[in-house]
Design a protein that fits this description.
The complex is a heterodimer of chains A (about 650) and B (about 270).
Chain A (H helix, E strand, L loop, with lengths): L14 H8 L5 H4 L3 E5 L3 H13 L2 E5 L17 E2 L11 H11 L6 H20 L25 E2 L5 H19 L2 E4 L2 E9 L2 E9 L5 E5 L2 E4 L20 H8 L4 E2 L4 E7 L22 E5 L17 E2 L1 H5 L9 H13 L11 E4 L1 H7 L1 H19 L8 E10 L2 E2 L12 E3 L17 H21 L12 H20 L5 H16 L5 H21 L11 H25 L23 H4 L1 E6 L8 E6 L14
Parallel strand pairs in A: 1-2, 1-9, 2-5, 9-17
Antiparallel strand pairs in A: 3-4, 6-7, 7-8, 10-16, 10-18, 11-15, 12-13, 12-14, 14-15, 18-19
Chain B lengths: L10 E9 L8 E10 L5 H14 L22 E2 L2 E2 L21 E5 L8 E3 L2 E2 L2 H10 L19 H11 L6 H5 L6 H12 L8 H14 L10 H5 L7 H18 L9
Parallel strand pairs in B: 1-5
Antiparallel strand pairs in B: 1-2, 3-4, 3-5, 6-7
Classes of the chains: A alpha+beta (about 650), B alpha+beta (about 270).
Chain lengths: ~650, ~270
């Protein structure tokens, strides 16, 4: 099937404004007749729930954490992009649009990206009005910093906690609506199934994580704002509870999963220190504003202390390879460059999997106090984890799984191929193409929630009758039975291996075979091995306790079971895409200098997969990508 | 000399852990052994190791809240040796590392204990009361859209920095757990002060502080008697000056109510 993203045509500058006018509206008196279910309360979910509640819809919001304020958007450090051009350095909506298309290696829809760039400015206004204490200069106006993949300073920030401040802004807007009664909040509640009636998404089945109660919530539309899936690699910068579960359940009910192989490996994370490790910690990309990446030129120096290596023996490899962007090369490029140095035997730290991020020159130029003011909390965090002082010795960093560009397929209205099912933020595949630029995730989450969905959902609701499906509908009852059955099955296996052992085994396999570098051989091997792990899981996992209580092992078991199915799709997508682009690097497809080699003739499309059953190959649907405004070109940051 | 080739010695620790099956059931301390722990394990990774052993032995693993494991989500919440988050300055328990302990140590683990935080299971408590305090007024009541350009509201760097100092609160509730009165004054004070320092939302400042204080009391939080335990326990180092600021804001609100320019909750 050839998919249609239904993106508006015509001059790109007019697409969103024209589309907004052409969409249907729901009149104020009718809004309260519609119920909208919002799953996930990160930037996308909280901003959507707050905005829709404010408009007068009945909203129910769900999160697995104990409070909506905990969603993992909170961990974003560096900043949020907007085309304000406050620094007068040549920025514009068009340039942000262009940088995002190019940064994504030409694998996103142009009008969607244009809209993101256009509303970016509204987001900053909104956040300031909410009382978010962005960094300011001495004039009292907003300050900006630079991020990878851009030659302008367009990133707004709140110390090293921008995600936290933006999420708390959205959370407070949500809290206001909860108090007003327009939004009903269900914390510690996990979505475990999507109910589809006559082809439309009309309910979700959830588990109350405190009591274990499994029940259905019906609505007129379902919004999945449930984040990304890179915990499939086991070790990632995601929170422990982040999972593919919500979007995977929707996929199994007919929603298409697009471009799962576009995964972002973030270049600046604290290297792994041992097998017991449960997660990896990101060090904001903003550090690359002032830190310089290097490795020793000579392999024999890799085991020495950094200060024993003279300046002339240091290889500032990003500055050498990409002189015009230097240390601010985009993430996919910076990550691969780090891997290349380590593969070459010049990596530093335990196992030789690390490169230096050195602040010596910035400290000499600006003083330690300035560096502390900019990144103090990051230096503290680095020291707590590694016991090393980043002001005195260079930090050691290594790439780690961080973000999923892929996700459920959505059209221009953020609606999946299942009518009534909308997907926002990281959970969808829409705007980042094959690689996301720094400070763009926060922008997308809030764009989708504050400024896109309030318009586009009306277009759907205006054409549907409210309250079509009740909780006693056979599909709802069936879904409850299925969810209960899965829990019972997991609890009944009583095997010999823990859930963690399985997800660690799976994650290691996926990381090694479908991580920063992929090949036909590695992917074929992974696709052969994953079903065996899955099979063993369902025979030999040990999940203690019962389903009728607070049971964290049962929660993890369910998420792991979904990752065990999803991992295969991830590898299949990576295997089918015989090109390298953005975060998807196939070793067979590269230029002599090691840069990713795209194949626009054969792969200039989004790959949307349709579920056909466990142990059956999914069906591929294509959405061709056309580039009318940004010319398809080899991406160069040299 | 090799810079990074050190071999990690392992530690064995005795854990005395609060176990409580559910909100209404009685709890008690149980003793466990944590084996093969290195200095690089985080505290929660040490608990992971213990739980893996417990599961294999067919026992119920210890329930504890955690999520981001990088000290920002505020989900982790364990009292270690009598101190909320374990006593390392400006550190959540997920960022506490085992290099702060030594082989053979005995470690006590308890949940947050406060009237407003009922225990759900083991080390997991219900902190919904903190959400209620925010719902009462922890926001500017601006609508989505229809707001002025961001640079139309200049804010001095000093005020913005002060506001950010307050806004860094992660809502973990350690301040409540550390307070002998189970007060949420630092939590509430931080949110009130974040807005008090900014021009945005000034029109509703008196109602905000009044509503939030009222919600705090209704939720069963205690009052401040200047122990400063909250600041000591706070993983973000939120300063007690924000409690004083909240009190001043409350007084200001009272005077404004008396002059008739605002209606005042509770009158």
């Amino acid at each position: 099937m050839i998919l249609d993203g239904k993106a508006p045509k015509g001059p790109i500058e007019q697409t969103w404004d024209k589309h907004r006018f052409e969409m249907k509206l729901v009149n104020p008196a009718n809004k309260r007749k519609y119920k909208i279910l919002v799953v996930g309360t990160g930037l996308a979910g909280a901003s959507a729930a707050a905005s829709l509640g404010e408009l007068g819809y009945n909203v129910e919001a769900f999160c697995y954490q104990d409070s909506p304020r905990r969603a993992h958007s909170i961990a974003a450090q560096g900043g949020i992009n907007a085309a304000k051009n406050y620094p007068n350095d040549g920025d514009s909506i068009y340039r942000l649009f262009y940088d995002t298309i190019k940064g994504g290696d030409f694998r996103a829809r142009e009008p969607d990206v244009w809209r993101l760039a256009q509303v970016s400015n509204n987001i900053i206004d909104q956040c300031v009005a909410q009382g978010i204490p962005f960094a300011r200069d001495y004039s009292g106006y907003l300050d900006n910093r630079s991020f990878g993949g851009a030659q302008v300073s367009r990133t707004f920030y709140a110390r090293g906690q921008t995600g936290q401040q933006l999420l708390l802004g959205a959370y407070s807007a949500l809290s206001r609506q909860i108090k007003l009664g327009t939004v009903k909040m269900f914390p510690r509640t996990e979505m475990l199934d999507l109910v589809v009636v006559d082809g439309e998404a009309k309910a979700i089945t959830v588990r109350d994580l405190i009591t274990g109660e499994i029940r259905v919530h019906t609505g007129d539309a379902v919004l999945l704002c449930t984040g990304g899936y890179v915990n499939v690699f086991y070790l990632s910068t995601n929170a422990m509870g982040c999972s593919v579960t919500a979007i995977w359940k929707a996929y199994k009910k007919g929603a298409f999963f697009a471009n799962p192989c576009y995964t972002q490996i973030h270049p600046t994370c604290i290297p792994q220190s041992g097998d017991y490790q449960s997660k990896l910690t990101l060090m904001s990309e903003s550090l690359r504003n002032d830190g310089r990446c290097w490795v020793p030129k000579k392999k024999e120096d890799a085991r020495k202390f950094a200060n024993e290596i003279p300046e002339s023996d240091r290889d500032y490899y990003l500055e050498r390879k990409y002189p015009s962007f230097g240390n601010l090369a985009p993430r996919d490029i910076a990550s691969r460059a780090a891997k290349e140095q380590c593969d070459d035997g010049r990596g530093v730290g335990p196992g030789g999997r690390g490169v230096y991020l050195d602040f010596k020159d910035s400290i000499a130029r600006l003083g330690e106090d300035t560096i502390r003011e900019r990144y103090g909390n990051l230096f503290e965090m680095y020291e707590r984890i590694t016991d090393e002082n980043g002001y005195k010795v260079p930090m050691r960093i290594y790439p780690a799984p961080h973000y999923a560009m892929g996700g459920l397929w959505v059209d221009y209205n953020l609606m999946s191929n299942l009518p009534g099912l909308f997907v926002l933020g990281e959970a969808n595949f829409s705007v980042h193409g094959a690689n996301r630029l720094g400070a763009s995730a926060l922008m997308q989450g809030l764009a989708d929630g504050y400024f896109v969905i309030p318009y586009t959902i009306a277009h759907y609701l205006a054409q549907t009758k409210p309250g079509k499906v009740k909780a006693d509908h056979p599909e709802c009852l069936k879904s409850i039975d299925e969810v209960k059955g899965t829990a019972k099955k997991l609890l009944g296996i009583n095997g010999n291996r823990t859930v963690t052992e399985f997800i660690r085994e799976l994650g290691t396999l996926v990381w090694e075979n479908c991580g920063m570098a992929r090949s036909k051989e590695s992917l074929t091997e992974a696709i052969a091995k994953i079903p065996a792990i899955r099979e063993e899981f369902w025979k030999n996992v040990k999940v203690p306790g019962t389903g009728e209580e607070f049971n964290q092992q049962l929660e993890n078991a369910g998420r792991t079971a979904d990752f065990l199915e999803f991992a295969e799709l991830l590898c299949r997508d990576a295997l089918h895409r015989n090109e390298s682009c953005g975060g998807h690097f196939r070793v067979e497809y590269q230029y002599p200098d090691g840069e990713a080699k795209r194949d626009d003739e054969n792969y200039c499309y989004s790959a949307a997969w349709e579920w056909k059953g466990v142990d059956r190959e999914p069906e591929l649907h294509k959405e061709p990508l056309t580039f009318e405004f940004v010319k398809l070109a080899v991406r160069s940051y040299k | 000399m090799s810079a990074h080739a050190e071999e990690h010695k392992t530690m064995t620790l005795k854990l005395i852990v609060w176990r409580q099956p559910g909100p209404k059931q009685p709890g008690r301390f149980e003793t466990y052994t944590a084996k093969n722990i290195t200095e690089h394990h985080s505290f929660l990774e040490m608990l992971d190791v213990v739980n893996e052993d417990l599961i294999k032995e067919g026992k119920d693993p210890i329930s504890f809240d955690h999520d981001c494991r990088e000290g920002i989500c505020g989900m982790c919440s364990t009292v270690v040796n009598g101190m909320a988050h374990g006593g390392q300055e400006r550190t959540t328990v997920c960022q506490l590392h085992m290099r702060k302990f030594k082989d053979g140590d005995t470690i006590y683990l308890e949940p947050w204990r406060a009237r407003a935080f009922p225990i759900l299971k083991d080390l997991v408590v219900d902190r919904g009361a903190l959400d209620k305090v925010i719902q009462a007024g922890g926001y500017t009541s601006c609508h989505t859209g229809g707001v002025p350009d961001a640079n139309a509201i200049p804010i001095s760097k000093a005020e913005a920095d002060y506001s950010m100092d307050a806004a860094e609160c992660i809502g973990c509730g350690a301040c409540v757990a550390a307070c002998p009165n189970g007060a949420a004054m630092l939590f509430t004070g931080a949110k009130v002060s974040q807005f008090a320092a900014l021009p945005q939302g000034q029109v509703e400042a008196p109602e905000r502080v009044a509503r939030m204080i009222q919600a705090m009391q209704e939720c069963g939080f205690g009052n401040c008697t200047n122990h400063y335990e909250c600041q000591a326990a706070c993983p973000k180092g939120i300063h007690v000056k924000f409690i004083a600021r909240m009190n001043r804001e409350f007084l200001k609100a009272l005077f404004r109510a008396k002059s008739g320019s605002h209606t005042f909750i509770g009158e």
